[in-house]
Amino acid sequence: MFCISLIEDNIEGFFNKLSCLANNSHCLVEIRLDGLYPMIQNKKASSPIPLLCSMLRKSSVISMNMPIIFTNRKEDEGGLFKGTEEERISWLMEVIEGRIASYVDIELRTETKLREMIINRAKELQVNIIVSYHDFNGTPRSPQLLSVLKKAYDTGCNIIKIVCTPKNVYDILTVMVIYREFQSILKGSEGRDIRLIAFSMGELGKITRVMSLLLGAPFSYCAYSKMEETARGQFILEEMQEICQKLSITEVDPSIKTKNEVF
After folding, report:
1. Full strand arrangement of the beta sheet holding 195-200
2. Among this protein's residues, is 134 annotated catalytic?
3. Which of 4, 90, 121, 201 is most deeply packed, by most CB within 10 A?
4. What pLDDT, in 10s, does the model give residues 34-59?
5. Section 201-211 average pLDDT
């Protein structure tokens, strides 16, 4: 399964790309809400999320059964959102309340009160939760990464996402070993349904986007096109499909939520 990460500065841009992806049964889509922030900042407008929710509900996108992840990254997490934390979180809450999300992504570093508010409401409305951790400067040592893994696990999320920046091949191995540590944690989880996505960014870490699927990640993030990467080192969809076909990675992960159950 592949997740196409989309970032647009207008709502119509999202719809154009969603329509093009409609017939791909091996895809889910990440909508980067922070791409819309410059638009409202320049126009001094209010939140664009109610309009986005309304348009999605009226469109054929919902009936496509394509899972949608909503993310709203602030600047120090690699995003474009420059408003207050309360405003940033309110956009995610509007998406949850709008009944259009299959998943919401909330950063582990988000203030605990705000993070728990998102997680609790998402659970109430049967929206899956991704808790993410990004290190854009390097790769923490194994004990630190294990601590991150355990903290993310304790949030009660459905998917843990850990992404680091490698400076050498040993950094890549440090991240990949996290999958083994994750299996050890799962042994005491009493059947809890939780998955891990861990990989390294940049050209050096590019191969880990494929390795992660071999190690149990439910999906890997891809770019819509060569010029539209939302993170360094992303393959485009066609490249990932070709690589996975050669490696016989063809099964669609049954744990991926294909439609929000509240519809």
Report:
1. 195-200, 159-164, 128-134, 103-107, 68-71, 27-32, 2-7, 220-223
2. yes
3. 4
4. 999 877 766 666 788 988 888 888 77
5. 95
233: left (phi over 0), alpha (psi -120 to 50) or beta: left
Q: How is the chain split into domains, by residue range?
A: 2-246
pLDDT digits (tens, 9 = 90+) for 213-245: 999 999 999 998 888 888 888 998 889 989 988
Of 17, 134, 206, 257, catalytic? 134
HSE-up of residue 70 (Cα within 13 Å, Cβ side): 27
Q: Which residue in 118, 157, 136 sits closest to 75, CA to CA?
A: 136
What's domain 2-246's architecture? Alpha-Beta Barrel (3.20)
pTM of the model: 0.91
| Given the residues 17, 74, 161, 257, the one annotated as active site | 161
